[in-house]
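Handoff note, outgoing to incoming analyst
You'll be picking up this chain. Sequence as last confirmed:
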Amino acid sequence: MARKTIEERLAQIEAQRKTLKARLGKQERAEDTRRKVLLGALVLHRLENGKDEFSRNLSAWLKRELPGFLTRDIDKALFADLLAAKDG
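Most recent structure output, in case you need it:
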């Protein structure tokens, strides 16, 4: 078998680099998604179970901030119950 030229070896290394970079990007996106899900779960838990002042303030803050943050109707529909819920 003939030895690869330097150019062929560089091309192979570049292809491996691109593959690893894509894999890293996918891993970073998955970790970002997991962080968002866990943080959202914590917020929802506090809204549903928290009876303290922090939880009431959190609910009020979300009712103020979410309408301006959510831009798509489909996203707004996901939070309609939370935005319509009474404080307490």
